[in-house]
User: Fold this.
Amino acid sequence: MSIADGGLKHGDEKMLLSRNTASAERDDASPLTPGQLMGLAGLLRAWRAAASERLGKPLTQKDVASALHRSTRWYRDLENGATVRLDRQLCEGLGKVLMLGRDELQALVLYGHGGAIASPSPAGDSPTRRALQLLIDKQMPSPTYLTDATWNVIGYNAAMAEWWPWVLEDKPNLMRWALLSREARTQFHDWARHAAEYIKLLKFAIPRHPDNPELAQLINELREDDEVRKIWDSSTEIAENRDGATYRMTIPAMNWETAELVSHVLYPASLPDCRLTVITWTRGEDGAEACGTDAGHPLAPLPTASDAGQALRRRIARRLSQHITVASADEAMALAGDDRAELPILSKFIGHDSRLAYSPSTRTVIWATRQDDDRWGIAEVEPYTIIVRMPQAIHVDGAKDEYKVLTRAILPADSIEAVERVQGLVAQLRRRIEVLEEIHRDEYQADPKNVPYIWHPVDEI
Assistant:
C-alpha cells in the first residue's frame, strides 16, 4: 500500500518510505537523499492519524483544508507528495489543526522552507574549533564532546575519552556507535528504547538537511541493521535533541558500576550546526553517586576485594585523564608499566594506528591512538571493553594468547575464585551450545533437504 492509498496507521513508518521504494527502482545506484527516506507527505498523514486518535473521531483531509481556508485538492496534493513552499502562517495553522508538539512543528517549518540555514561543519583546523576544544579541555570536568551535523565527533575532553574510549577511534560517529556497536548495546540499559530516541534525532535531521549526502549515507548504513530498521519502521516520532535526557548505563571505566546519566545539549552560536554535549550524573540522598553493580553479563568482571586496589586504579585513571596525549607510541605503552603485556595483534583489530598494552599491576588496558597531529591519545579501559569489541579475534592465528591475557584479567585475581568463576561460565556456555544445537536439529528435521545436517546421538541407534 502506498501513501496515496490513504491507509496510514499511526506509528506505521513504512508508509513514510514510499519515496525510498520508488528510488530503489531507479536505474542508477546513487545513495538515497534524506528526503527520499522520509518525506513531509508521509508525516502529514501520520500526524493526521494521530490527531484523529486524540480527537476520538476521524480528521479528514477536507477538515484540515477547511481549517486552513484552502481547497481539499490542495491539501490532498500536499499529502500525496506535492512540492509546496509553506509560509510560517500556514505551518502554524497546520500545527494547530494537527495538534503538533514543538519538535513536530519545527520539522514542519523546516520541510516548508526546504531545510535550515546553518553554518557548515568546521574544518579540521579552524580557529572556531580550536577555541571550542580549548573550552572543552579547560572548563569541562564532566565528559564532554562536540559533534557536527551528521554526529561525527570532532572534539572531546579527557573525561569523555576515559569513560567512552571509542571517541579515540578513527572518524568516530555517535550514531554508528550508539546504534550499531555491540559495546553500546552492552552498556545501555534497555538499548532498544535508547535506539528509538537516537532514531528520532535522525528523523528530525532529514528536513533540517534534506540534501546532505553524508546524512543520507549514514541513515542508509544504519538501516541495514535489522534491529535498527525494525525500530525505525515502528514509529513516526521525531525529536530535535536529547537535552535533559536521563538514562542508565553500565560504565567500564567505573568498574562496570551502573550510573544514572543526564545529557545537556548546547548549540555554539558560531557553529549552530554542531552540538556540544555535556554528560553529568545524578547523586543519591547520601551524596554518593547513584550507582549499583551489574553482574548480569556472564563475562562482567567481579568487583575487586581490595579497596586499595580500586583506589589505585582510579588514581591512575585520573592521572591519565589529565594528560590525554603523549609524543610517541613507546611513551604511550610505557604508561602500562614495566610489567606490561603489549597486544599487537588485537591492536590491529581496534583500528588503524592503535596500540594496546595490558597492565598487570592495575589490571587495566592502555589504549593509545595516533591523532592528526601525530601525538598519541590515551585512554585507560577495562579489559572487558576490549574483549567485547572483537569477539572474532579468538579465531585469528596468534591472537589467542593475547585474548587469553585479557580474559584472565576480568576474572578474580585469586586463583581459587577465578577457577570457580570459570567453572560457572563453562557450565553456562555449554548449556547455551546445547540449546543452539537443539535449534539446529529442529530446523534440520523440519527441512532436511535445505538445512545442513547436524549429528545427534540418536542417529546411531
User: Anything to note?
Assistant: Confidence is low (pLDDT under 50) at residues 1-30, 283-323.
